[in-house]
Amino acid sequence: MVFCLENNEPRRRLRSTMVHFQASEVQQLLHNKFVVILGDSIQRAVYKDLVLLLQKDSLLTAAQLKAKGELSFEQDQLVAGGQLGELHNGTQYREVRQFCSGSGHHLVRFYFLTRVYSEYLEGVLEELTCGPAPDLVIINSCLWDLSRYGRCSMEAYRENLERVFVRMDQVLPDSCLLVWNMAMPLGERVTGGFLLPELQPLAGSLRRDVVEGNFYSATLAGDHCFDVLDLHFHFRHAVRHRHRDGIHWDQHAHRHLSHLLLTHVADAWGVELPKRDYPPDPWTEDWPEPDHLFQGSQGQPPDFGEQLALPPPSSLPPPMPFPSPLPQPSPLPLFPPLPQEPPFFPGQPFPPHEFFNYNPTEDFSMPPHLGRCLCNLPSHLFQPPFEPPPV
Fold this sequence. Notes:
InterPro entries: Pced1a_dom. By secondary structure, this protein is of the alpha/beta class. It is built from nine helices and seven strands.
């Protein structure tokens, strides 16, 4: 989904259906590119799967998906936070990771966020201006924003979304592609370390709050002409690949997410993708979500490790033609010749920083309320909003 509302005209119509990328193709697509990924534990898994796919054609293990703040993952390094500091589930948790390929042609960095806009994010933006400019920024923050910050969290989230998009517009170069990942669908029952016991009353409404938050984030991203990837839509029928905590997803889901994301990026950059034949798509089936999908016969979590990788979605119908013929630029050749001078170096120090379906049981309809305040929760659980610096 890509739209720009400033001129009431679509910015770009995506042409490509999803491609299953091989590691060699990802290496070529992201050759000499600096990728920055910001967000929560879901975004950390996005980072990990991309780092793995840049090196080999294999899936993440369950242990790798669950790990948090480890010193090294698949040749990357923990730069700040995580095990270098204190591991906890508070809003001040920090984790910065970086992967630089041995060839020096790929640089991927991850920042853990507990809020879409904050003083910490301002430090991240300042840090990005000190080093090489990113070519691709992938960002999302939603669950923490809606459950841990303030009595009127939705209103604060909307304000912070506007702030972060304004700041990204100001800081990122025009050549940088920003992709806003919409939050993935939650399960009926939500548990997890980030949801403190005092906040368990929020679990019942958080599922619909995410739908509302996705609406606002996609709209505001479109207002600023940023790209939007609707993960909530793509994974609405994939309940069997969601863990029983109702939040996280297995390695097959994350590889599917990587393919969706890379297809979107390649299309945005005008790179012609390889054409392959794929089997029919079972994702179009209506998959129910009864209680037993989260538990085995003995009340155990389902075993995701033996499942096959997710198949690609079915082909979309061709877009409707424009009323009059418009000149279309020729797509770039599939992965043009690669320059040999590496822009990044594995031993290069980190820049200075001052901070460490339709489904009858899946109801994702927009809540009837807007901007609902959570007025019955104790104020000590939340933090006041951070005001951006004057422009």
